[in-house]
Specification:
The protein has about 220 residues and is mainly alpha-helical. The protein has one domain: Triger factor/SurA peptide-binding fold. The protein has 9 helices and 5 strands. Helix 4 crosses helix 8. The N terminus and C terminus are likely disordered.
């Protein structure tokens, strides 16, 4: 029985949940930064570039108006992802987890094949995940890394206990790094590992299906 595999799509859709827009404070401690994670800046210009890539892709879609309407809080969603990625990368590194380029390519090829081809896969992720074509590899990497991190810490993410175990690891890393967000984008929640009211991406992703057992991709 064929069942379409949910890859980056699952958590990408979760990132589109609206986050409250907060008024920026007049005394910005990090001018030009959307956030600072572990002392490393995420520049506003970098965030804007990611948003612009998606908007450009949406403009070329027949459903352009609807796609843009559905992603009104795109800046918050993208910043959420960018911060989460840094927390995840550090958590994975601390657990000795790595992801190779070959693993990413293999996972992407599998996902694209199950979606009817690369073009259909990219279209689906743009429509449902607000991902431009250049952002797909990053989303695939996130999924593979997250799955391998869960395996490394012995967490069965199909259970509440397993989810809590991964969340605890990510929370500890987030607190250790320190996340300072420009108030205009909201505030970071270490306990939920998310920005403002955006949904937690990893929970949506890992609970849609059991972690696969095949190697070497872990996805």
């Amino acid at each position: 029985m064929h069942r379409r595999r949910r890859t980056a799509l699952s958590f990408s859709v979760a990132l589109l949940a609206a986050a409250p827009l907060l008024t920026a404070c007049g005394n910005d401690a990090h001018p030009g930064a959307a956030a600072v994670v572990g002392g490393q800046r995420i520049e506003v210009s970098t965030l804007q570039a990611q948003v612009r890539d998606v908007r450009d892709a949406q403009d070329g879609s027949p459903q352009s108006a609807q796609l843009i309407k559905n992603t009104a809080q795109l800046s918050q969603a993208k910043l959420n992802t960018m911060i989460f990625d840094r927390v995840l990368e550090r958590s994975a590194a601390d657990a000795g987890v790595k992801v190779s380029r070959k693993e990413i390519q293999s996972a992407r090829q599998q996902a694209a094949a199950q979606s009817g081809g690369e073009k259909q896969f990219a279209t689906m992720l743009l429509q449902q995940g607000a991902l431009s074509s250049g952002q797909i590899d990053g989303a695939i990497r996130r999924e593979v890394l997250l799955t391998k991190l869960a395996q490394a810490v012995g967490a069965n993410t199909m259970t509440p206990e397993g989810q809590a175990k991964v969340l605890a690891r990510l929370t500890a890393t987030s607190e250790k790094l320190g996340v300072d967000v420009n108030p205009r984008y909201g505030s970071w929640d270490d306990k939920q590992v998310r920005l403002g009211e955006t949904k937690t991406p990893w929970i949506t992703q890992v609970t849609r299906e059991a972690p696969p057992q095949q190697e070497p991709t872990g996805a």
